[in-house]
Amino acid sequence: MTTRNQRVLILVFFIVAISIWIVLPNNPGIHILGIEKDIKIRLGLDLVGGVEALLEADLPPTTAISAEDMDTAVKIVENRVNGLGLNEAVVQKAGERRIVVELPGETDPEQALQTIKTTGLLEFVDFSGIDNNTAMAMLNTKIQTDYEQSLQAQETVVPTVTPSETITNTDVLTSSAGTSSQIFHTVMTGKYLKSVQVSTDPQTNQIEISFELTTEGAKIFADHTSTHVGEILAIVLDKEVISTPTIETAITEGNGRITGNYTLAEANALAVQLRYGSLPIPLKVIESKTVGPTLGQDSLSKSMRAGIIGFVIVMLFMAIFYRGPGLIADLAIIVYALIAFALYKFIPITMTLPGIAGFLLSTGSALDANILIFERLKEELRNGKRLDIAISLGWTRAWPSIRDSNIATLITSAILFWFGSQFGATIVKGFSLTLAFGVAVSLFTAWALSRTLLDVILNHFKPTNYSKWFGI
Predict the structure, then answer these.
(1) What pLDDT is attached to residue 342?
(2) What pairing do the DSSP bridges indicate for beta strands 172-174 and 246-247?
(3) Is 456 in a helix, a strand, or coil?
(4) CA atoms within 13 A on the CB side of 15
(5) Which residues pair with 188 in a beta bridge?
(6) Helix, strand, coil shares of the chain as percentages rounded to 5?
(7) What is the distance between the alpha carbons of residues 362 and 373, in angstroms, rounded to a whole number?
(8) pLDDT computed for residue 181 by the predictor
(9) Strand, helix or coil at 23?
(10) What does the angle CA 398 – CA 402 – CA 408 come to, to the nearest 5 degrees?
(11) How many CB atoms lie within 10 A of CB 96?
């Protein structure tokens, strides 16, 4: 065995060993030296069910929207989705005014979409002079503040209450040590929020939202709360009053809490909206569809069954038609599938039905490479060449065709990926990614495995009955 063949086989063995570890069903992931990476299969919407929505800028068609604003909106939506724990979601821009959102496995689509599309303008509004009854009656109603949003029309609703109404809850805004804020005047907006977390009051066991302000925000808050102790500072989200806490003490440390009768889900949703900022443009859902988990699992099982059947048929064909080299090709294809799947899982690439189709199509590229090599080998043997020379010439003369065809496929995959990115066609992106990685792996296995195994096995075995072993 030549030094080149030894090195290549060691490299292949090493890669195969790593690939086997990656594809283990219960892979523990990598958690060492500060690296925290889970290794698991990511299944797309069409395989596990969930929600797909198309969001559009909620502005007149004549209103210009900058690319920067759309890119910012995409990033904020993506952060909100991840904040909801939907780490396998897909968020991407579709054209100049739309965003595609896919939420695989989502069980509460209405809540998720509401959290995602809400503009999220948080205002601390001065309710000085308003009594608790009136302030409580204004909860969940829209008000007009002096902080105008040029992109949205707001309606003003001022409710009336009677003295006989009973108030069952009075929200309180407090700092980590103390408190804070006037009517229809915006003291401060959410842009001064540094961090937002959901916590529980250790004394009352009540769910609350704690926040930390930036240095500038802390000064604004301290100035206002110091002069308005005992007054109400309303928390207003998108012009809707969501909480009416009373300033118990001055908040000078830049830390505060928003309390109220929140459920854990409500508090988490509000925290996500506040934590990831305000959308630069309002969004509306113009189209959404739900894929049931049963339909997704049915698609997955049928795809797996079809893939296995096709794989077995191909391997039988190679073994029967190409005899000895066909068995080598079968081994190379198994290694190819193992490495490709390990890459999909490690990166990870979200597997969808089109993605599976891309993987199966790239399997054809792996077969093409082996078929070209074997046909050239058979041609050289028919011309009376010695086996070692025939193997060398077969590879040398087949390689240009293998290289050019696979490069053409990679270029096509890049074009498809660009198209999918520009127009929000996530199924096209999934197809192009799995196809590109599969083709790259097929090139490696053709160069490193098929050629090397042919050289090592056939030169050591040295068959003389070419008709029996090569089908010529």
Answers:
(1) 92
(2) parallel
(3) helix
(4) 20
(5) 124
(6) 50, 20, 30
(7) 17
(8) 39
(9) helix
(10) 150
(11) 11
Report CA dihedral (165, 167, 173, 178) to the nearest 10 degrees: 120
Structure-block tokens of residue 14 = 């090493």
Element (H, E) at 175: none
Gap between the Cα atoms of 161 and 135, Å rounded: 10
CB atoms within 10 A of CB 14: 10
What average pLDDT does the segment 366-381 reach? 84
Whether 83 and 65 have beta carbons less than 8 Å apart is answered as no
Which residue type does 464 have?
T
Sign of dihedral through CA atoms 267, 209, 240, 249? positive
Instruction: Name the residue with tokens 């407090």.
Output: 174
Cβ atoms of 439 and 409 closer than 8 Å: yes
Amino acid type, 458: L
Q: What is the tens place of the pLDDT at every residue in 42-91?
A: 777 777 778 888 889 888 888 888 888 888 788 888 877 776 665 567 88
- CA-based torsion, 228, 211, 273, 425: positive or negative: positive
pLDDT beyond 70 at 305: yes
Average pLDDT of the segment spanning 174-196 = 67
- What is the mean predicted confidence (pLDDT) over 268-273? 74
How wide is the angle at C-alpha 339 spanned by C-alphas 338 and 342, nearest 5°?
Answer: 85
pLDDT digits (tens, 9 = 90+) for 136-149: 889 888 888 887 54
User: What is d(CA 360, CA 377) in angstroms, rounded to the nearest whole number?
Assistant: 26
pLDDT at 412 over 90: yes
Identify which of 357, 359, 286 has the alpha carbon closest to the alpha carbon of residue 46: 357
Token output for 197:
């977390």
Q: Which residue did the predictor score with more confidence, 292 or 312?
A: 312
- The Cα–Cα gap between 298 and 295 comes to 5
What residues does 185 pair with on adjacent strands?
126
- CA–CA gap between residue 280 and residue 99 (Å, rounded): 14
Q: What secondary structure does DSSP assign to 62-84, as a single string? A: TS---HHHHHHHHHHHHHHHHHT
Q: Where are the beta strands (DSSP E) in 155-312?
A: 172-174, 185-189, 193-200, 207-213, 233-237, 240-243, 246-247, 255-259, 283-291
pLDDT of 324 higher than 70 = yes
Evaluate whether 204 touches 219 at the Cβ level (below 8 Å): no
Average pLDDT of span 24-38: 83
Enter the pTM of the model.
Answer: 0.60
Residue 210 tokens read as 């704690």
